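for the record, two folds in this file. i put them one after another cuz i was lazy. first one right below, seq on top, structure tokens after. the second one comes after a little note so u can tell where it starts
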Amino acid sequence: MQIRERQFVLDQLALSEARLLELVDGLTPEQWSFRETPERWSIAEIVEHLILFENFILRTIATVLEAPPEPGKKSGAARKEPLVMGLANARSTKIQARESLRPVGNWPDADERIAELRNTRARTMTFAAETEADLRNHFFPHLAFGDLDCYQWLVVLAQHGARHVLQIEEIKADPLYRLLTRAAQ
């Protein structure tokens, strides 16, 4: 990974985490569990999903890096860079999470949930800061985009966090959620 790539990923991961933590700071149990509609996730479920997704991607990267490099896939992945970079703002395109990455209530306590989120992001940041692996020549498929290289997957983690930050902002803008906020004051 080039120096500028490493710094970009670290900056993006830090920004998405900081914004997320800002949005969930001081939420009441009712605010954590509020759903805009029955089929939408609550803020608690979004945070759990982020933890599950990030751990899954880190495990997958570790596994993929054990396999031989596949430089023949490099040009195909390079063409997808704009898709990866625009993932957070492409909220009109819905991507269904794999069943194993859907929230099931693993961290019902808000403090435990936030601690797990911080620990997960710290592991990602440490990996991104320290890895010397050839990330640009190891690949695995994204559900919507197809093969991405492991560097792109680190960018996806930051973009995925930012995408769900936007979702949390939508929840907090809901008039019924705002009633919960007034009631909590």
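(here's the note) second protein begins now
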Amino acid sequence: MINDVLRDAESRMKSALKSLDEDMGTIRTGRASPKLVENLPVLYYGSQTPLQQLATIAAPEPNLLMIRPFDPQSVNDIERAIQASDLGLTPSNDGKIIRLTIPPLNEERRQELVKVVQRRCEEAKVAVRNVRRDALDDLREMEKEKIVSEDEFFRGKEDLQKLTDGYTDRIDEATKRKEQEIMEV
């Protein structure tokens, strides 16, 4: 019973960490990364479609993204979506390929991005702590209903705390890596 609660808590914490990683990928650094635009919604034949479903995205150089649409007719739709996004990038196309030049970040913008990263890190930690709270409530309920003994409850509580600490540390590591990536000139 306790193992089921811990397994459920771990899978939910893992999804919070995965969500943070995906979120971090969309934060712009001085280096070109396909993750920057792959989930960008593009209005294609009347429906919002992620860019990665419409084109191949490559980073042939550290400051350049090349987007090659599967359907040459969608070049203008993709270009409009990039211009409408909050990326602050200006696309250029030759009718078949869209090129995005990633300009270097200034110091002020780097500091703003670090704050965004820290805020998202804190949101992920809150999500992990919420999972811990829910799992702890389940454990208390099991003890109250005499499904598990008091000793098993405390052992489960300790295991849950270790799990929470481990995921919190992983979130901190991911945040430090992203901050270093942003501050790298």
